[in-house]
Amino acid sequence: MTSSSPNANTYDAIVIGGGHNGLTAATLLAQSGRKVVLIEAWETVGGAMRGHAFHPGFRSAGLAHVVNRLDPEVIKLLKLDTQALSGEPASTVVLSELGNPAILRGAYGETLEGVSTAEAAAFAAMRKKLMFQAGILKRFLKRRPPAIGKMKMNDLTSFAGAGLSLLRKGREEGRDFLRMLLMNVADVADEYLGDDRLKGLVAFDATLGIHLGPRSPTSLLGLYYRLTGEMNGGIGSQTIAKGGLAEAFEAAAIAAGVTIRTRCAVTRITADRSIATGVVLETGETLTAPVIVSAIHPQATFLKLTDPAELGTGFVRSIGNIRSKGNVAKLDLALDRLPDFAGVSEADLSGRLVIARSIDHVETAFNPAKYGEFSRDPVMEITLPSLTDPTLAPSGGATLSALVQFAPYALKDGWDAGRQEFQRIILEKLEHYAPGLGNSVVAARLMTPVDIEAQYHMPGGHWHHGELQADQLLVNRPVNQAAGYSTPLKGLYLASAGSHPGGGISGLPGLLAARHILSGEKP
Amino acid sequence: MIPDLSTRRSLQSHIAAPRIETPFHPRIAALSETNDWYTWSGYKAAHSVFDEELEYFAIRSTAALFDISPMVKYRIAGPDAERYLNRLTVRNVAKLAIGRVQYTAWCDDHGHVLDDGTLFRLAADTFRLCCQERHLPWLLDSAIGFTVDIEEETTRIAGLALQGPTAFAVLSKAGFEGMERLKPFQLAEYAHEGGPVTVSRTGFTGDLGYEIFVSAEHAISLWDRLWTAGQTHGIRAIGYAALNRARIEAGFIVANADFMTAETALRADRARLPDEIGLDWLVDAEKPFFNGRHAILEARRNQTLKHMLVGLEIEGNIPAEGAIVYHRKKHEAGLVSAAIWSPLAKRNIAIATLERPYGSRFIDDLWVEIYASRELQYQKMMKRARIVPRPFIKLDRRTATPPGLF
């Protein structure tokens, strides 16, 4: 005889999506004593951090191959095992066709190698300036965006704080901040730098994962965003992702008492007259809770899971208008030996390698994306994850992971037609910088934004869950009516990268959403 | 997700055609003695036909034929049509029976009224929405996620309003059988050469009356059929000026005349919640979610409604159109949006919007300042105004079933 409690499917909170933000929110809610269930469609949790075997003996560490902004407070509150993040900050090597790379060491180039003393000084000046300005913006990233028209005291405090920290540095800094805030990264780089490798790097970092070229207005925001991240105490620092980070988040959730259900997609969020009541699973089960946290893409939340009859036309319209078409493809290579990048020492191979020859290179790589074509001379960021985590490849072998752009989601001729050609172009490019690499390829797996969308349920294959551009930030992320984690459906909260502050492995959307829910807004 | 814009553009061909003539235009133009036209939703429509005054009295004493073809019409059909309209509009569409008509309104997410209009349930899953303004983009965006087809049929479907005490007699004489059974807000199909016509017992006059919809190609034959039958019943073609008088007496409001619709208002404070234009009775708070629900209920709960639409009776006989309403002759309290001397009620009446608390807490000691232009000189009058219920007239013949055969 089986007996089931009448409350078996009743929870205090249901979290949809087991990405790191969903796990963060679930863990924090469970720590507060709530009965929390987390629903994940895939076999395992971890989202973009989740690794997978892509060839016998070879594993990819996940979609996110560099971790550069996991929030220290998230680590602390979740009591996260940071083994997967340990080690020295990874360097960034800007590859050069001439075999003389520029190398940034420490947190975003605290020291430089391979550039002239004068150029190093110029970079340091730019770095200092941008770090300072990013620091002002950072004040707004770790708190709920202010509700326009309903400003609270602490919103004003935060504005005042930002203003004061500007003034403390003198009027000149304040003026410069306002001057630069919405500039393009190319103009800023030109202002400070002379070396094309460094200019190419900042142009690349500012636009990675964003549908902008370095000369597009506001493209500097992407670099600011990057420089608001910190790892192991270093602002702008980065580590190469090892396997195990997803497991660490999962362990934290389980330790907090979260019930995790995988391979179990949510098919519907139920609601009645603006109040979310629960979710229906693909198994047909209905789970109910006064709090439902959707840590998946806002468009998936509202256009796929929610009955439009429960949402306003204007709201559905603005959710539909979120720009979320990814531009980045992910390539995983299984290699039978370590590649030899010209001019890069073996020690530096374990960092991040960037192919971005100049601002023009990044800009011309972007141009075709505007017209639905991929770049024939793409820019990319390369890591060799098996150097950091030897379990990812058989001994003697290696894995290579590359984020390549620009590869527009809506390719004019479709990715079925374009995939082979794009992969050939990337491999050719890699061969150019690492002669012999082509012969060492055991297996290759290219994920275009279309594949990323299918595999990770990210509409548009966009890892930020929506373009990280000025009009989709802060009070307008993902849309104004749902900017503060609450949504027009009472009891339904957003907690994905699509919410403030945005994407990257930070845990902040999850943390801020959980904090907002716990702050006592009646569910 | 959002439908292709070029498709939308092609669905709105009226944009490219200035001052279209309605299918009835040849008949009305032939009757027109005043040659007095105005633009109604891009159509050339009669403001008067022979004499504004006499046209008004045709509505109240015999039968008046008014061309409502420019009224914007949408056909909404599909398995989700009822659910779609229930989310779109503030009234409960589930309660709208087949063959019935509902006066309704719809709002944006902020609860601001986009328009009011009439909703016809032609079949279980087929509706016609009639209104003043064009709303195709809003209706299409509202259809995201619903299995429903929305088609603008303004040019395809012509319409006539036949209003007045002898309206029923005219229809009977014209051979529309079974019309006596049609109750107010009921509709039915009737045979007509070439194709059926839809007749509803509705109107904008507060009188006995019908609205008849016909496909554009059969419009002229319908006109002729009614016109011939109406000869012994005093049928007259009328323009908007006469209708406007009748509708003021009936207390009906006109979008963008008595209130600004949310999409046409340029100034943020001009948009109105249903409760602010006297449409609170339409809002069904118990039905499933609808656009604007949260904002409307919250404004009620928090008592943040800012305006109020009222009927006024003003001393004297000078229409107070456009007059400012004062409290104690001193504090501005609102504005008159429509006013006439009512020949039927024998009262000087007006529709006005007051800024609360005027109209809610302060209802006495209201005045209107009338500027009557008298041969290049204003005669300025401060007249006492009293809030009175709408409609200003109530005619038993409007609802009597079967209607009288006058």
Please give the number of β-strands of chain A.
22
Uncertain spans of chain B, ≥5 residues at pLDDT below 50? none
User: Strand fraction band of chain A?
Assistant: 15-25%
CATH topology category name of the domain at 13-52 and 71-84 and 243-323 and 464-518 in chain A: FAD/NAD(P)-binding domain
Describe, in plain words, how this protein is organized in 3D.
The complex is a heterodimer of chains A (523) and B (406). Chain A is α+β, with helices and mostly antiparallel strands. Chain A contains 16 helices and 22 strands. An eight-stranded mixed sheet of chain A has the order 8-7-6-18-19-20-17-21, sandwiched between helices. In chain A, strands 12-2-1-16-22 form a five-stranded parallel sheet, covered by helices on one side. A three-stranded antiparallel sheet of chain A has the order 13-14-15, covered by helices on one side. In chain A, strand 6 (92-94) and strand 7 (102-105) form a beta hairpin. The longest helix of chain A has 25 residues, at 117-141. By secondary structure, chain B is of the alpha+beta class. In chain B, helix 3 packs across helix 8. The interface between A and B is medium-sized, with 21 and 22 residues.
Short description:
The complex is a heterodimer of chains A (523) and B (406). Chain A is of the alpha+beta class and 523 residues long. Chain A contains 16 helices and 22 strands.
Structural topology:
The complex is a heterodimer of chains A (523) and B (406).
Chain A: E1 13-16, H1 20-31, E2 36-39, E3 52-55, E4 58-60, E5 66-67, H2 72-78, E6 92-94, E7 102-105, E8 111-113, H3 117-141, H4 153-168, H5 171-180, H6 185-192, H7 196-207, H8 220-227, E9 230-231, E10 234-235, E11 239-240, H9 245-256, E12 259-261, E13 266-272, E14 275-281, E15 286-288, E16 291-294, H10 298-305, H11 313-320, E17 329-335, E18 352-355, H12 359-370, E19 379-383, H13 385-388, E20 398-405, H14 415-433, E21 441-447, H15 449-456, E22 492-494, H16 508-518
Parallel strand pairs in A: 1-2, 1-16, 2-12, 6-18, 16-22
Antiparallel strand pairs in A: 3-4, 5-11, 6-7, 7-8, 9-10, 13-14, 14-15, 17-20, 17-21, 18-19, 19-20
Chain B: H1 5-10, E1 20-21, H2 25-31, E2 36-40, E3 43-48, H3 52-61, E4 63-67, E5 72-77, H4 81-88, E6 101-107, E7 113-123, E8 126-131, H5 136-142, E9 149-152, E10 157-163, H6 167-173, E11 187-190, E12 197-200, E13 209-215, H7 219-230, E14 235-237, H8 240-250, H9 293-302, E15 307-314, E16 324-327, E17 331-342, E18 347-355, E19 366-373, E20 378-388, H10 396-399
Parallel strand pairs in B: 1-3, 4-14
Antiparallel strand pairs in B: 2-3, 4-10, 5-8, 5-9, 6-7, 7-8, 10-13, 11-12, 12-13, 15-18, 15-20, 16-17, 16-19, 17-18, 19-20
